[in-house]
Write a structure and sequence with these properties.
This protein is mostly helical. The chain contains two helices and no strands.
């Protein structure tokens, strides 16, 4: 029964936070133009940015006495 002294105020606080978050989202325009987000991936970019470097290509190959010889697969 004493757990109700914790759960009821906690539920009220969480409910107030949810109501506040909803009104904040409405005031900041989060619900404007709901269809624009679903169409934007389908549109072509008019001016694409610079090419992105491939991070995998920049990884150095292992070297040293424990490294496998080049061209051979490395199996454990």
């Amino acid at each position: 029964m004493t757990i109700l002294y914790v759960l009821v105020p906690l539920g009220l606080v969480l409910s107030l936070v949810a109501v506040w978050a909803f009104f904040w989202a409405v005031d900041t325009g989060q619900f404007e133009e709901l269809d624009a987000a679903s169409v934007s991936p389908l549109e072509d970019d008019l001016c694409p940015g610079p090419p992105v470097d491939d991070p995998v290509a920049r990884v150095p190959s292992p070297s040293g006495p424990d490294a496998p010889p080049s061209g051979s697969p490395s199996f454990p």
